[in-house]
Write a structure and sequence with these properties.
The N and C termini lie far apart (44 Å). The protein is built from no helices and 14 strands. The protein has 200 residues and is an all-beta fold. A four-stranded antiparallel β-sheet has the order 1-2-3-4, with no helix packed on it. Strands 5-6-7-8 form a four-stranded antiparallel β-sheet, with no helix packed on it.
Length: 200
């Protein structure tokens, strides 16, 4: 319910028929989790499939296009686990512990180890290195923090304010490890800062 400017309510309406809704309207399916961005949404079903709808200006749907949709369209794959999205990008894990990103890649936010001149958006999922990813946290300007099942923590993306915790203000386009192997608690990010709990 609410605003439906770009079909973000998922009600399968043509552009001329996109009024808002002031009360809940069901989207068909058996859903397990939902995440949202700027006039678009993404959700997993109980069968492990992943779906997107609404605005798609940076390819944040992950379906190899920038076409907007007013009803859910499926992202390839059937083993999606946790999804983290914001205005125009997505990071998601699969049940095998792999980590994938797509959408806007400003400041290397998708972790693909690229030079600044190569930081294009991706409209399909691209895998980050590693297979044991656990929690993910982000902040709005493009910083990323993620932990792995071995207790290590990794950061990448925007770092002008030192938010990546690497004792500098250099932005990184690939995951870079923080010192320590006891990053096993909760992590969270906001604006250009991160907080994380350690076991020691």
């Amino acid at each position: 319910w609410g605003s439906n400017t770009n079909g973000q309510l998922g009600h399968n309406q043509a552009e001329a028929q996109l009024p808002g809704a002031s009360s809940p309207i069901q989207i068909p399916g058996s859903w397990s989790a939902v995440s949202g961005g700027n006039q678009w949404f993404m959700a997993t079903k109980t069968d492990g499939t992943l779906w997107s709808w609404g605005k798609n200006n940076k390819g944040q749907f992950g379906v190899n296009s920038t076409t907007y949709h007013s009803s859910p369209v499926q992202v390839p794959g059937t083993t999606w686990a946790n999804v983290y999205s914001s205005s125009t990008w997505v990071l998601a894990t699969k049940t095998d512990g792999t980590l994938w990103g797509w959408g806007d890649n400003v400041n290397g936010a998708l972790g693909q180890n690229q030079a600044p001149a190569q930081l294009n958006s991706y409209s399909s999922p691209v895998q980050l290195s590693g297979t044991t990813w656990n929690q993910i946290a982000t902040y709005d300007d493009g910083g990323r923090l993620a932990t792995r099942s071995d207790g290590t923590a990794w950061t990448w993306g925007y770092n002008a304010n030192g938010g990546l915790g690497l004792n500098n203000t250099t932005s990184y386009s690939s995951p870079t490890q923080l010192p320590g192997t006891d990053w096993t608690g909760d992590i969270t990010g906001k604006s250009t800062s991160f907080f994380a709990l350690r076991t020691s």
